[in-house]
Design brief:
alpha+beta; Neuraminidase; 14 helices; 32% helix; disordered N terminus
């Protein structure tokens, strides 16, 4: 393998590192409230590294669209233990039991300190669909003493009376106004194996599965949120109701809507392929609304990968595709809901959401390539080229100005598409507003193909002109032209080389531009960039030796 081929592979490697590998979801979650739908996806953690987590939101400001990314939802690195959403925020519990809150229209913030309550993760974690309230179910014995002791003798007597001299196995914690409140869970839930919690207007519904009875549910006895009949109370909780008694339950999801509490049961003979059955409470009884459909077929999902949730009074489902994307769909809550899916593109999002250090990595790779080129062509770089009388090396500033002029045709061709991709609400050309929009990862993902199209059109423009006349309109305007290092007209392969490298240098944006300027100003004696060195070309203009000395001295001819 020739050194030129090795260097070309290195260049392509730099480009691949800069443009990044496509993020792919290994696990999805969907949660929501009556105002928003949240979609969260985690990649597969490789070689002991934490997964990369991406987030999307369809909030109150976008009541009809699919979930979108924004600059307020940057990608993060971490392992998610559980998550839920209330009317205000997305609450994420990570595997180290730290929490964080994410918002539709502002930066995220640290959440409550879960370890102040327990050193064990909650058994269930659910939010209120109408208020900024969420709940966590824990085993009573895992709560820290300060979180379980009543503060007054009256409180102690009230709780002792409610418990009928029996300590419940579980305690429900309610987070409201940044303070935890504690309520013993119903005694009937002591036999539960799996748990779910959801609520509306401050009223939680607790669901639990019992092997011999299916799924049961209970709520607070005092009716604060619903006009539906409230079942007979047992202490602070209602008497348990049977939601479903099916024996093929594999998994479940709980939610709440304006129609009341909802339970989505994943039923099937296999734990990795289930159908989604919707159970709703109507007229004081739980009814089976039958399985959700994808078109005319029953919808089947892998619950270990796909996300299911209730948001905006709709059933929402997210599932990964085999092409590095996520399909998201919603359906009306009702009889056999039909889910209509759309694809959320993930191309380039991992690059857009990577930390600023990624640019430094790309720059380091480009500098490594520069070192490789310098070492392999060190004699060519160190040897000054003797130009014929009447020619001098074109100053860097002239080449930069020629570049800007030559980029105009490509810009004119791609600019109309830029406005096509603008959202309909972007009616202002305020610089600050435009900057915020361009910082939106979803918008940057949309504009990425336009950037690549611009780079290719610009490079093709230069290639065609240089093949024809060894110059470009921009270079002609500034009196510059391309020559071979042998002082002959450059061969087609030389022109192809220098323009192929131009795609990489321009396409890499800032790192590529920095290395190009370093090559022409600091490294080479003949003002050559990487494409010139590999192609064996130079850029010259008419001039005298005295003018060249002034150019070399202070940059002005």
């Amino acid at each position: 393998m020739s050194r030129v081929t090795v260097m070309l592979l290195a260049v392509l490697g730099c480009a691949a590192a800069a443009w990044g590998q496509e993020w792919q979801a290994a696990r999805l979650w969907v949660v929501g409230s009556e105002k928003s739908i949240w979609l969260v996806g985690a990649s597969r953690g490789e070689s002991g590294a934490f997964p990369t987590v991406q987030m999307w939101c369809a909030g109150a400001k976008d009541p009809t669209g699919s979930p979108k990314q924004s600059r307020f939802l940057p990608a993060v690195s971490g392992s998610i233990r559980d998550l839920t959403a209330d009317a205000q925020a997305l609450h994420v519990l990570f595997s180290d039991l730290t929490t964080r809150e994410y918002f539709e229209d502002r930066e995220s913030a640290a959440g409550m300190r879960w370890r102040d309550q327990s050193d064990e993760p909650p058994l269930a974690w659910g939010g209120d669909s109408l208020e900024a309230v969420f709940w966590a179910l824990v085993e009573t014995e895992t709560l820290k003493a300060s979180a379980t002791q009543p503060t007054t003798e009256d409180d102690r007597a009230s709780i002792d009376e409610m418990k009928s001299d029996r300590v419940p196995r579980f305690t429900l914690l309610q987070m409201r106004n940044d303070e935890w409140q504690r309520l013993p869970a119903p005694i009937a839930a002591d036999q539960g194996g799996r748990f779910w919690v959801a609520g509306r207007q401050g009223r939680p519904w607790l669901f639990w599965s019992v092997q011999s009875r299916g799924v049961l549910a209970a709520t607070l006895a005092e009716d604060q949120a619903s006009s539906q009949p409230v079942p007979e109370a047992v202490g602070d909780w209602t008497r348990p109701e049977v939601v479903l008694s099916d024996s093929d339950l594999q998994c479940g999801w709980a939610g709440a809507s304006k129609y009341g509490p909802i339970f989505v049961a994943g039923r099937g003979q296999s734990s990795d392929r289930v159908r989604l059955y919707l159970y709703m409470r109507e007229g004081g009884e739980w009814t089976n609304k039958d399985a959700a459909r994808d078109g005319t077929e029953f919808l089947e999902v892998d619950p270990e990968v796909c996300g299911v949730g209730i948001g905006r009074d709709r059933l929402s489902v997210a599932r990964p595709t085999g092409k590095g994307a996520v399909e998201f769909g919603t359906g009306e809550i009702g009889l056999s809901p039909s889910i209509r899916f759309t694809t959320l593109s993930l191309q380039g999002q991992a690059v857009e959401e990577t930390p600023p250090g990624q640019g430094l990595v790309t720059l380091a790779l480009m500098l490594a390539l520069l070192t490789l080129v310098m070492w392999s062509r060190r004699e060519q770089i160190a040897r000054p080229i003797v130009l014929p009388p009447g020619l001098i090396f074109a100053p860097v500033w002239r080449r930069l100005m020629a570049t800007l002029l030559d980029a105009v045709p490509a810009m004119l061709l791609t600019m109309p598409l830029f406005f096509v991709f603008l959202p309909a609400e972007a009616t202002t050309m305020d610089p600050a507003a435009m900057q915020d929009m361009l910082n939106d990862p979803a918008m940057r993902s949309k504009f990425a193909p336009l950037w690549y199209a611009f780079v290719l059109l610009y490079s093709l423009w230069c290639l065609i002109w240089e093949l024809a006349i060894a110059s470009t309109p921009g270079k002609l305007l500034f009196g510059c032209r391309v020559m071979g290092t042998t002082m002959a007209r450059p061969l087609p392969r030389q022109i192809i080389w220098r323009n192929a490298l131009r795609v990489i240098e321009v396409g890499l944006r800032e790192p590529g531009w920095i290395v190009t300027l370093m090559m022409m100003v600091l490294v080479t004696r003949n003002r050559q960039r990487v494409g010139d060195i590999l192609g064996g070309t130079i850029v010259v203009m008419p001039g005298t030796a005295e003018q060249q000395e002034r150019v070399d001295g202070d940059g002005e001819p």
